[in-house]
């Protein structure tokens, strides 16, 4: 028996002009939509250990989720309506017609943070007694810890989820709290400008300069790991978001690569690059200290980003030539390797390596 799902706003299309001047209709990736395929959802077949009733494993098909008269069903339908009407531009959600206890959300990293232009996916599940207990939230981390509140195993620590200590008003309230509040909290309180201070105790003792130095180093690592996350997402995008991931990184590729270059050269503090080359919350005219570790790590990752974006269909144009010269002026040592050597690998990846007069490549191989 099919569930009586609420009627949603009609799907829309927008017109796009092709290279031949023809007008074609393309589907808009709406911020909220109902889909059917939940096959790769983290909570699809997981036992809800938090269920204190001692009942057997449930896949979300019990009375609380299929009975339209149950409190959980009614509350979830209310959540759907709230999400459909009030999601901000930077958060997208997909719910499932056959598994109303599950949903997936992606948050676009905000400008002015080391998460800018990245995509951060969360799998969410409603417990059978929802809203008495908060939803379960899992961060799709790819084994990387990009925030004190987001663990490499996917655990999300947040007071609103009752997974982190907090005042009563900060915790889940069954009569007032919503999934929308959870998502906005993740974006504003977790994926913030200075995530280093999310860790309890950081910045408490005197010595602001020392704390700020540690915070900047932490943000450098966060940006590096966020760039690695981009590559993982391009290789294995979450189901129902394949087109969104492709389109997002195709559009943002040049900005991301420009930011990498600006950060490596110390033109802008990590997290504050803007598309016009300026920065916020810092003096763009002064040189910013950048650790040698960050320069080395980003120097090694940069060719992979370029290659990944190129395969994804990004129009980089003369971007490589514009970035190559400024970076090659400095030979940045890191574990015996240099950024100059990295760009040699980059040219090999993209098929741009030139040959010398003897017909051999001008860059030595790793085995030489």
UniProtKB/TrEMBL annotation:
Biased composition (Polar residues): 10-19
Keywords recorded for this protein, A-Z: Transferase, Ubl conjugation pathway
GO function terms (MF aspect): ubiquitin conjugating enzyme activity
Database matches in InterPro entries: UBC (IPR000608), UBQ-conjugating_enzyme/RWD (IPR016135)
Gene3D superfamilies, per database record: Ubiquitin Conjugating Enzyme
Stretches the record annotates as Disordered: 1-20
Keyword check for Transferase: yes
Coiled coil (UniProt feature): none
Cross-referenced Pfam families: UQ_con
Top-level taxon of the source organism: Eukaryota
Domain UBC core, residue spans: 71-231
Protein name: (E3-INDEPENDENT) E2 UBIQUITIN-CONJUGATING ENZYME
Lineage: Eukaryota, Viridiplantae, Streptophyta, Embryophyta, Tracheophyta
